[in-house]
Design goal:
Elements (H helix, E strand, L loop, with lengths): L7 H108 L2 H24 L2 H21 L2 E4 L12 E8 L7 E6 L1 E4 L2 E4 L1 E7 L2
Helix pairs in contact: 2-3
């Protein structure tokens, strides 16, 4: 808008100068705003760069910690695996040793049972020799008394042999009380004895120490 003062040339010049000043101020304000905006962007970029660098550093530290932890776990796993393999190997060897021991013990037990009476049988051979000699002697001489005497000697030899092996006769006499731990009652017979007494002895009983090998077979008494 041209200001009117009566002098047209002066009014046009003043209006132009005024507009020029306004435009200049506007441009300067615009430049200032652009500079401020640019500075803010630069500042944001710098702050963002610093934050990203810090996060990256922290991430690297965390990754390094995880890597070391992973290496430790792998080392522990390897150690445990080796220990497991050693235990497994020891177990397999112990199982094999036990199996060999069991088989060896079983064989020794079988041999012990099979040959347990070898010594006793060897002693019986002496008695067998004497029986054969007595039989040959009686065939040749026909001497009955000598034969009987020879049998008595063999009988005594046999008893001595059994005694040396720990065998003893269970003493059982008529009139003794019947004992179920020592005697085996085959029947009950009428007798003048009190009921429950031993009235007859059919077969002698024997024991080795306190173990009964054979119960004495008897008949017990009962009332007539």
């Amino acid at each position: 808008m041209i200001r009117k003062s009566g002098n047209i040339a002066k009014d046009i010049k003043d209006t132009y100068v005024k507009h020029s000043n306004i435009d200049t101020k506007t441009e300067k304000q615009g430049e200032l705003m652009i500079d401020l905006h640019t500075d803010n962007e630069d500042l944001n970029k710098s702050e963002t760069s610093e934050i990203n660098s810090q996060q990256l550093s922290e991430l690297n530290l965390e990754l390094e910690s995880l890597r070391k932890e992973n290496e430790e776990l792998i080392s522990q796993l390897s150690s445990i695996t080796n220990e497991r393999d050693n235990f497994k190997d020891q177990l397999l060897r112990k199982v094999a040793e036990f199996e060999n021991f069991k088989n060896r013990t079983l064989k020794e037990k079988e041999d012990l049972i099979f040959y347990a009476n070898a010594s006793l049988i060897r002693n019986f051979l002496d008695i067998l020799d004497n029986l054969e000699k007595a039989n040959e002697s009686v065939k040749k001489s026909k001497d009955y008394d000598a034969f009987v005497k020879g049998l008595e000697m063999i009988e005594q030899q046999f008893k001595n042999l059994l005694k040396d092996e720990g065998l003893t006769e269970i003493e059982t006499n008529i009139g003794d009380d019947f004992d179920v731990d020592l005697h085996d009652a085959l029947m009950a017979v009428e007798s003048d004895l009190e009921p429950g007494k031993i009235a007859q002895v059919f077969q002698k009983g024997y024991q080795i120490k306190n173990k009964i090998i054979r119960h004495a077979k008897v008949a017990t008494s009962k009332e007539k």
